[in-house]
Structure formats: structure tokens, C-alpha cells
Amino acid sequence: MSTRLASGGRLIDRKTTQKFTFNGTWLSGFSGDTLASALLANDQMLVGRSFKYHRPRGILASGPEEPNALVNLGRDDRLEPNQRTTTTPLFDGLQATSQNHWPSLEFDIGVVNNYAARFLPAGFYYKTFIHPRAAWKHLFEPVIRKSAGLGRAPKDRDADRYEQAYAFCDVLVVGGGIAGLQAALSAGRRGDRVILLEQAAHWGGRAPVDGDAVGGMAAGDWLTAALEELHALPNVTLRAACTATGVYDHGYVLAAESLADATPGDGRPRQRLWRIRAGRIVTATGAIERPLSFAGNDIPGVMLAAAMRDYVVNHAVSPGDRTVIVTNNDDAYRTALVLRDAGLAVPVILDARPAPAGPLVEAARARGIRIEAGRAIAKVQGGKRVTGVQICLQAGEGAVLEEISCDAVAMSGGWSPVVHLWSHCGGKLNWDDRLSAFLPDPARPPLNHDGRAMVTPAGAAAGIFEPDAILTSGEVAGADPDSLGEVQDELLARQSVVVPPVWVMPQGARADLRAKMWLDFQNDVKVSDVQLAAREGYESVEHTKRYTTLGMATDQGKLSNINGLAVLAQALGEDIPQVGTTTFRPPYTPVTLGTLAGEARGEIFQPLRRTPVHGWHESHGAYFEPVGLWRRPYCYPRSGESHADAVKREVLNTRAGLGLLDASTLGKIIVKGPDAGRFLDMLYTNMMSTLPVGKCRYGLMCNEQGFLSDDGVVARLDEDTWLCHTTSGGADRIHGWMEDWLQCEWWDWKVYTANLTEHYAQIAVVGPKARALLEKLGGMDVSKEALPFMAWSEGSLAGIPARAFRISFSGELSYEIAVPASQGLAFWEACLAAGAEFGISPYGTEALHVMRAEKGFIMIGDETDGTVTPLDLGLAWAVSKKKADFLGKRGMERNHLSSPDRWQLVGFETLDGSVIPDGAYILAEGSNDNGQRNVQGRVTSTYYSPTLKHGIAMGLLHHGPSRMGEVVEFNKTDGGTVKARVADPVFYDKTGEKQNV
Amino acid sequence: MLTLTCPCCGVTAEETELAPGYEAHLKRFGPGSTDAEFESYMFARKNPKGVHFERWRHAYGCGKWFLAARCTATLEVFGTYPAQTTEPPAAILDAIRARRPDWKA
Amino acid sequence: MSEPQSALGNPVFEGFATVREIGPIGMITLRATLSAPVLAKALAGVGLALPAQRRILRQGARAAGWMSSDELLILLPHSEVPEVLASLSKALQGEHHLLADISDARAVFRIEGVKAGQVLAKLCPVDLDRLEPGELRRSRAAQVACAFWAEDDGFTLISFRSVAGYVMGLLTHSAQTGSELYSA
């Protein structure tokens, strides 16, 4: 049984007890525990069920590589699934529940999969759920979806806050073990700006647990001195509990910092995402111990050897009274010694090597520990926890020589350097035969913007495991990365660590044993699955990964990938480097979505753009619609009024009397200079240079392909200044478009532009009584004579400086009044107050749309979609035939665009008065090769016209203008059709009398 | 996420402060050009694995367009230069050749 | 004539730094050849001098900031805009230029206190430790364009007016007490 030892535990504070629940049961641990160590201290060996077979699973590791011990952490608005107990600090009140079982962890129905395992081989889903096709949607997918996934997805809105921050440094050191600390010291002493990150909450990495002397001192003393010096260096920033999750181009690194995970609700952000730009990066990320593949290696109580001594030394937790050690290297002997020092029994060390030797082996032997060379585990006995092991020869097939009872097994299959960050941006790896591991190849590093190495590995991450060699490698990585390759080769050659390959235990294991050897514990992938994949023809490691799901779980194969590809290589009869690794992709460990979203939630999810009148709209019940990032009133429903009724009322009120529209979102760009006219003639399809001062002209802009891009009214302000109105969504884009041509093509033309969109509030005063209102406001002459249609003038209205444009998008007498934004609300309110006697009422974008459609005015984005030319829309009158060149002219000349055989704009009146559905197509005879009905056009704008009291629409129809009066058929979403008569798109006031009064 | 130094304002900006403008040094073909010329201007784009000349705008900055010479495979930046030129300046070509001796313009 | 209103009505937030919307502040955009002798003269005529690349030069209540190689931003009391516009316009007659009142296109914020830089460090991809004295930096704050400079124990930050509420939200979120990035 696992229990708390009476003394020891370098990270725990026995004076501070912390109570927590696991599956509803109250347990207690100490401050400094992880959830994993606290569970072990409470003899909670069984912590979860495996993904596929629902096998009982215990804690395997002590760090972020843990595949089994994942829990749902917290509840309700702080519930988070798949949290690794090994990296979750214990806190008072923590609530955790185990995952992937029903009805309970102890008794789980799903374990039936375990007994049916031979019916669930690799690729089971691919092979099984192909036929019948119809069953996929209604039977297979729902069942698979229900059984997929480990933890429970939270349903409540996340209660926590998150944030992000930028940081810059010369050298970023990832990993706070002795290699990283030494690298930070050597770079810091040179005066470099250094950031040092450590994923754990404490510094020192493995050194304090492993106990070797560092730089001639006890590891703890060295650590204290190093940290003291680093804290004193003003150019070095240290950050613990901060995991570098990914390395990206040009020294960009993302790191997730835990702030309030263990103190939920303390008001601080729960986590912070650091966006670090580093001159270069040192990865001192250590190494991860590999499991050994023997039968029953997943039974609770089997643990990685180094993890076991972590729990003993760091948390004073004994995973078992009698622990069998099984290894292919010396390092696991440390665990035997630590267990013995803690007064625990180590009945035997099973060493797969024929002749283990060296100081650690000798130390164990000197302590009287039984060492069996060339031996292996044939099978672990036990169900929900280990009860014993069967011993066999490593060289054999698994014949049992002896059974030993024990309640824990510590295994070590060697160490895999953590090369993830090295590899994210293209760093290459070499296979090292002495270590049986992939190491970073210093000759093929990921490259920075200057073509130099961006990442430098140090310490165990570079395959260097002996403390003084680690110090040297850290020193060089921190100060002199260019000479690192050479130094590391020498350090590697000098070190005595050797790890012979032991990929399957015993090497000739029978099929029944191989079917119980777990490679990927989280996704339940066994040695037999990878071998099956190889037999079925999977040769690429990337394909095998996807077929077997090896390494595709939340741990991304930290423990399984090397073992898996070694088994694959063996099965294919190839060398490991030939098979290669799968691609290392960020993030190194999972990052919470909240952290990636940072501040972008709720009110500041995205920048909402508000006009100066926005507050008034809000307080007067406007119903808003998004227009780009703007929010514009769609309509202003009165109490009890539907949106459709409100729109109808707003249209009729405007046509009959007086309406007010907040048009502030319209783009307003000043174009000025001696070449401004010439420039605008290139930009617009029609002539702008000839526009007289004081006048307005509607213009179209096309892209170089000849397709419509934007439209708007241009006003000439003075001899060399024009004001270009753009669509609401187009202001920034068109301003950028202008600057692009001026900066990159016609850079010798004397033209300046300025985007003044937001400087002005623009209020449209619309309706037969518009003039009466402005006259009442007073300040400037707005008479027909002084300010005729398509003219503008400047002055003041209601005491506010104003520019009035006589333009109309509704067909009514209309003025658009531009006033400074800081007085926009005042002007709006002045209009409403003065307009009361004229029955003034604000109207929204939907009424605007209805009125412009009644007039047959096109709208960019409705009538256009990037494939429509001005000619398609009957706007030939606005395309100059005189100009030698303008943007889009050559594009329009292409034969397909100039062909008469295109869909062209017409109006439609439904025969039954109904409204054609948005997006409806106009049906043609017959069907295409796919059995779909042929079409001959589509609707682009469709509304109920309150003025005409029936449905009206505009749309593009094949040869449209020559088909006036013809009846065509539109499809409807309910499968039926609606008939409409082809008509002139100008439905209302065809001669334009009303706007020109 | 790459960084480029804007030759106009001198800021080394990160990619989020920049707007991409794709291939640089295109020659505009307008009215009177052949279909082949127009196609080359409008559609035929280089997609090299290696040295590439690109347009970038310092959009969240001084607002100016500039050009960059960059390796699309390693993201090495050979240099940035003002947009008001029809071909890469000699200094940029020298920088490229220093790093990619086999490169041909 | 009504009183000009700033975008938000000058709210204040006190966190580990103080965030305030200030203004309305007068602003003029001036585009011209910055090396033209007539420009320096025109600026001198309104009590200003030509700033170097990416610098802002304050002269009493007025300042001139370098926005781009052909663009200056002139800051001044809101009420002085017409007079300064007229003066510059007259002085630049005959020189190709563009002058425009953009006071109301912008919102202005102050972030104050010894940790003010930490608020910006959460929002702007800018190496603030390397910001030079008097440097006017244009960048982005989260998802919107901004410009800022250090001044009087804090920073002044300019954004577009329409997103003033968003920017105030960003600054408030980032200045929450307890969320300091560094202790000093």
C-alpha cells in the first residue's frame, strides 16, 4: 500500500494540512504536495480508467508526462477536465473526480472492453464502422461520440480571468534545473537580458532528488547559491510555474504561467500567457524517463523509477512497502537506494543487462540488495494494484523462473531528452546508440531571422546526464553557443552513461504477453497493436500513429513515442533513425483555452466600434446589427412592436415626413494634392477630376480584375481636395488601397490622403420635411437654390460647425450632415428636438436597405460578391469610356467579363406579393451532371416594400435586362417555389422627382 | 511569427503589426496589354522554396509599405528596403548572395 | 455651440496603475515633405519644432509627433485647433501638403504610476525597456491600433475614437490590482 512516511519530504510542510476531495471523499495532504502525491499518501492507487479498455490505472509519473492520473478538477464554473494530478499543486478545498468510468471508479461497466480487447485491435473503428453507410449518422457516430473523450467538458462559463503579456530578452532559458540555472548565470553575468522559466513551482530539476554533488557542492547548496546570484542580477528575470509551450519563428516563444490555479477566486488572473521574443533560446528541458514494455506494465503500482524516488524524497510518500526495480540502466539503482534509505523493502533489482556494473550498481550491491542480471519481468500480477511479478530471462520468451510478491514496481527504460522545443521550429535530431535516444543535432538547429541557430540545448535535453558535464554544457549554452556543438560532442563522448536498447521485455515475448504490454497508456496502444499495423502495411511512423492512435492522447506520446517507433522499427526490420519520429508540434503541454483567449472575452472579446450617437441608440431601445466591427441600429422597435413592424413604420414615416439616420460609420477619406484628380480618375471607374468644386458625384471602384469593390459619393472640397465617401465596412480597406497605389506604384504623384472617418458624426436627415427641419435648426442656407441636389456646402447648423451634402440613398429629399464627432450627439438630439413637430423618427439600417432597394440602388456586399462587374449591375453610365486607364479597366476587357452572356441586374415583383427568400436561385430547365437543378440567376436583395405593399427584389438574371415582363421561378427553403415578374429595379419614383426638390 | 524591420520608421515589428502584400516587383499591365501580359501581372505568382521578394505594410505602425527579401524555407531575412523601387537594390542582392552563393535572381 | 465631448466622458480606473480617459484634446494631422524648409518655419510659427524619426517634441501645451516619414501629429488644446490650422495652412501655401483636424477621430488615455508600463506590456508587442526618451511608438493594443509615449510618470496612449470603450476595457482589465507582472 502507498502511504506517507514518518519523516522527510523536502517540498512538503507537515504543519499545513490541506483537505481535498477525490470522488466526493474527503482526504488530506500537506502544503507542497501535488494532487498525485497526496492521493498516494492516502493509498489511492487507483485514480482512473484507461480510454479504450477502461483498465484500472494508477499514477505512473511525477511530472507533465503523466498519462494516467488525469482528473476532472474543480466543479461548475471552475471545472476543468484532463488535469494531470502530477502537476496540480494541492490546495485546501480542491475537488477532483476520476474520469472515464461508469458507474464508479471501482466498478466500471466499460471494463468489458478489456475482456473484448482482441475484438478491438488497431484501426478497429476504421475497419468496423464503414458499412452500412446509413448507420454512421444515426448509430455509429452518436455511440462513438458518447464514449469518446476522457473528462467531462465544462458547461458553465469560466469563472476565472486570464491575461497575456509580452516580454523581450536576449536569452530565454527554458528549464530551471542545474543546466538552465547555469546557462542563465553565464548569460546573466555577461550582461545579457535573460529570462529563465521553470515549469515546476520549485527550482533545481532532478538534482536535489538524485543527490549527486554539483560543482563540488551538495546539490541543495549549489542551488541556493545559484538562485541567490540570479536574483541579485537585475538583468535576469526568473519565473517558476511557467511552462514554455512552443517555439516559433524568429525567437518567439509562448509560455503559460500558473498564477492562481491553487488559490481559485483570489482575484488574480488564473493563468497568464507570455509572448516572449528572445534573441535566442536555451532549452534546458531535461529528459523524460521511459517505461519498459512488459506485460502488465499498466497495473496501478507500476511506476517510473525516478518518479518513485521523487515521491519519496520530495513528498515523503512511499508508493509501496516492497518494490521490485526493473531497469536497463544504472539510474534506477538510485531509486533502490532511496527506498532502502526510507526503510522500505527492495526484494530485487531486475536488470535486463547481462553484466551491470558501475558505482550505483556497486552501491546497491554493497547495501545487500539482490541484483539479478539478464532478468526481466514476464508479467506483473494484480488487477487494481500490483501483487507480484513473474521473473524471466530477458533473452527468452517469458518462461517464468520465479514469482516475487511485491506491491510496487519501479521501471526505467532509459531517458528521452525533451527535444520538443528544439524541434518545433525545425531543429533536427540524431539517434544516439549509446543512450538509445534522439538527441538534438547541433549542426542542424532551427534558424533565426539572421540565419544563425535560434535554439541551443543544454544538459539532459542534449543527452548530457552527469552533473559536472551538465554545468559545462549550461555554461557554454549561456555564454558561447557557437562552440556548443564541439563541447557537447566531447561531453557526450566522455560520459559513462550507457542505455542499451530494451524495447520489448522479454525480447522474444509471446503474443499473449505482447498484448498486455502498454506503449501508450492513455490511448491504450499496446506492442501488439503497433506490430499489427506493421503487418498490415503501415511503414510510415506518421501513418502508424494515426492508425493506432499512438501518441495522440493529451500527453502527446511523451512516454510512448520512442518505445512505439522502436517497436515499429523492429517489426519493419529497420533502424530507428530510418523510421524517424513523428512531428513535434506545440504546445508541449496542454494550454487552457482561457489562457489563449487572454483578455479577449465578454465586453472586450473584440473591438466593438461605436458611433458618437451609440449611447443614445442603446438607451432608446435600438436593436443592433453588426456591420464589420461597428454596431448599427437595425431598427428602433417601440414597446410591443416586432422588428418587421418597426422597419415598416420607419420607412413609411421617412417617406411621408421625416427620418433621421446615424450614418457616421460611412468612410470619409480626404485626397489632396496637385495630382489628386488624376489619382481619383485611376481609382474610380468614372471621372472625378472634372467634378466641380462644391459638387458631389457617385463613383464606383473596382479591383484590377474589374470586379466591383466599393462605391460612394465623392465631394470636391476645393481645387486640389476631394472627400471620398466609402461604404461603412470599406473605409480602412479603401484607405489602404489608396496608400498602396500611392506608395508602391505612383510614388512620384503628389497626393496625400487622410482617413477622417471617425472625426465626423454623419447624420442623414431624410424625408419631405428635411429642409424644414434644417431651416428651423438654422445657421446656413439649405434652400434648393443654395444647396441643390448633389451639391454640398459648409456652415453651421444649430450652432454646430457642419458640412451638408445634398445626397440621397432613399430617394427622398435628403441631407447628410457631417459634424465633429465630439458634437455628434448634440446635433442628433437637436434634430430630434426640433423635428418633433415634423413627426421625426430615427430609422435603422433595415429601413435604409428597404428604401434603397425600392429605389434600385445597389449595395456593395449584397449586389456584389467579388465576381460582379459594374456592367453586370447596369452601371455602364458610371464607367468611363473616355479614360485611357483606370484600375479594373483592363480586367473588365477580358472576354468572359465583357461577354453579353452574363447574369445581369434586374428587379423582381412576386406574383403573389410574398417576399423571395434571401439567397434564392432562379431555376432553369433541366439538371446538371450532379443531378442538381440548373439555375439562371439569383436574388441579391429581397424585401417587403411597405411603400408598395408587396415583395420586391433585385437579382442577377441571365440576359436579365432583355427579359422584362417575363415570369421566372425562385426556389424556396421549404422546397417550393415562388414566381416573380422581371421588372425595372427602380420600383419607386422612377424619375427621381422626390429627391430633387 | 516573423519580425521585420520597417525601413521607413526603423521599428522591428512583429508579424501582427504588419499586413502582407505578397510578391514584390510586379509590373502592372493595364489597357492595351496582351492577355498573356495581364495574366502574368494578375495571376502568375512565384512560389519559391528559398529566396523571395515580398511586400509588407507596417499597418499597425507608420503605415508605410516596404519590401523584404526573405527565405521562405528557413525564414531568414536578408534585408528590407523601401517600396519605391522596381528591383531589389544591390546591397540586398549582395546580402542574399553572401548567404546563398548558388542563388540566381 | 455645445461643449465638445470626449468619447467616454473621462472615466477613471484605479488598479495597480491609474487609467484615465482624458480629452477632448486637439489634434491635427499634417502630411508634407518633412525636410522642406517651409515646414520647419510653419511649425515654428505655431511654437513647435520638427521632431526626429519616432519622436514627440513637446513645447508647452503643444506637441509635434513623428508619425511617418511624411506625417506629423500635432497635439494642442482643443479650442486652439482652428487658429493653428489656419496659421499652418497659410504658412504652407504653395507647398504640397495636407492638413486636417482629427481631434474627434481619436480618444486619449493616461496610464499612470510606477507600474504603468506593465499595463502596456500586457497589450502591446513592444519592448518597453528599449523605448527611448521621447519616443512616440505606434503599435497595437490587443486588436486595435494605438500610439503611445512616456510622459510625466506614465504613458499617454491614443486610439481611434470608435474603439475607446474597448481600449478602456483593455486598460482596466490589464491594470487590475494583483495582476502585476513584476514586483517593481
UniProtKB/TrEMBL annotation, chain A:
Domain SoxA A3 intervals: 516-598
Q: Which domain of life is it from?
A: Bacteria
The answer, when asked if Oxidoreductase is one of the entry's keywords, is yes
Using the record's annotation, list all stretches that form the Aminomethyltransferase C-terminal domain. Answer: 904-989
> Which ranges carry the FAD/NAD(P)-binding domain?
170-430
Sorted alphabetically, which Pfam families does this protein's record hold?
A: Fer2_4 (PF13510), GCV_T (PF01571), GCV_T_C (PF08669), Pyr_redox_2 (PF07992), SO_alpha_A3 (PF17806)
- One biological-process term from Gene Ontology? tetrahydrofolate metabolic process
Q: Which InterPro entries match?
A: 2Fe-2S-bd_N, FAD/NAD-bd_sf, FAD/NAD-binding_dom, GcvT/YgfZ/DmdA, GcvT/YgfZ_C, GcvT_C, GCVT_N, Sarcosine_oxidase_asu
- Which range is the signal sequence, renumbered to this chain? none
Q: Which UniProt keywords apply?
A: Oxidoreductase
Q: Which residues form the GCVT N-terminal domain?
A: 614-883
A single Gene Ontology MF term assigned here is:
sarcosine oxidase activity
Q: Give the record's family classification.
A: Belongs to the GcvT family.
Q: Which PANTHER family match?
A: AMINOMETHYLTRANSFERASE (PTHR43757), AMINOMETHYLTRANSFERASE, MITOCHONDRIAL (PTHR43757:SF2)
What protein does this entry describe? Sarcosine oxidase subunit alpha family protein
Protein species of origin: Szabonella alba
UniProtKB/TrEMBL annotation, chain B:
InterPro entries xrefs: SoxD, SoxD_sf
The UniProt transmembrane annotation reads none
List the molecular function annotations (GO) for this entry.
Answer: sarcosine oxidase activity
Fetch the Pfam families from UniProt: SoxD
State the source organism's domain of life: Bacteria
Q: Which GO terms describe its biological process?
A: tetrahydrofolate metabolic process
Please report the name of this protein according to its UniProt entry. Answer: Sarcosine oxidase subunit delta
Native organism: Szabonella alba
From TrEMBL, chain C:
Specify the domain of life of the species encoding this protein. Bacteria
Q: Which Pfam families match?
A: SoxG (PF04268)
Report the Gene3D superfamilies cross-referenced here.
Heterotetrameric sarcosine oxidase, Probable tRNA modification gtpase trme, domain 1
Which InterPro entries does this chain map to?
SoxG, TrmE/GcvT-like
Task: Using the record, list the residue span of the signal peptide; answer none if the entry has no such feature.
Answer: none
What is the protein named? Sarcosine oxidase subunit gamma
